[in-house]
Amino acid sequence: MKECSKSVMRRMREPNFANRYFVGSGLDVGGGPDPLSLYRELFPRMRGVQTFDKEDGDAQELASIGEESMDFVHSSHTLEHMRDPAIALANWFRAVKPGGHLIVTVPDEDLYEQGEFPSTWNGDHKHTFTIWKAKSWSPQSHNLVDLVTALGTAAEITLLQKLDDSYRYTLPRFDQTMTPIAECGIECVVRKRPAAEIAAGGRKPPMGIVSRVEAALLTGFDPD
């Protein structure tokens, strides 16, 4: 139920979405029914976002999207519909420029599927997801930590969270995404490390020094 739209107020409260994640030109995979482009003016550094849906081709392969052609790739509740989520994530990540971000939201299997699979609420769901579990009740469960780390050394997880702020754990089994507030999901943001950063084994600050005046202004402490 308009899961991308539900996320907008939450994302507006998180400065990184406006300042780092939704920056430049992006791709919204599977966004047709509820596109991110509807909210472009709320994220001022977003120059534009192209929606990629069924009429554009196979979302798992993104064959028409060039390698490292997008500043960001966004997908809200699409990965669970893919034949192979590992291949889909690899192709979505392939399309991200170095320094750019992959932003993916999926249902959390305990919050959404609630112990039963095939899905009670959406018969097209082919997979369920957790942040990480040693054991799951679902025969098609995937740990997002495992899927993302399989993307290789370029993948830097910058955000990974369960979206249960408005989930009501006291309710009996019920599809809470049909309410106006519950997201029942997991959000993961992955930054693509540039080649130099991979070679260096991590991210280093820019060259140069912070002047005494800048340091005093930044810290409020003047050593003199």
Chain-wise SSE layout:
Blueprint: H1 3-12, H2 15-21, E1 24-29, E2 46-52, E3 70-76, H3 85-94, E4 96-107, E5 128-130, E6 141-143, H4 144-149, E7 155-163, E8 185-192, H5 195-200, H6 212-219
Parallel strand pairs: 1-2, 1-3, 3-4, 5-6
Antiparallel strand pairs: 4-8, 7-8
Arithmetic mean of pLDDT:
96
Q: Under the CATH scheme, which architecture would be assigned?
A: 3-Layer(aba) Sandwich
Output the number of helix runs: 6
Name the poorly predicted regions: none
Order the strands across the largest sheet as they lie in space. 2-1-3-4-8-7
- Rg result: 19 Å
Termini separation: 59 Å
Number-wise, the strands total 8
Describe this structure in words.
There is one protein chain. The protein is α/β, with parallel strands linked by helices and 224 residues long. It has a single domain, classed as 3-Layer(aba) Sandwich (Rossmann fold). The chain is 21% helix and 25% strand. It has 6 helices and 8 strands. The chain has helices at residues 3-12, 15-21, 85-94, 144-149, 195-200, 212-219; strands at 24-29, 46-52, 70-76, 96-107, 128-130, 141-143, 155-163, 185-192. Strands 2-1-3-4-8-7 form a 6-stranded mixed sheet. α3 (85-94) links the parallel β3 and β4. The longest helix is centred in the first third of the chain and has 10 residues, at 3-12. The model has no long low-confidence stretch (mean pLDDT 96).
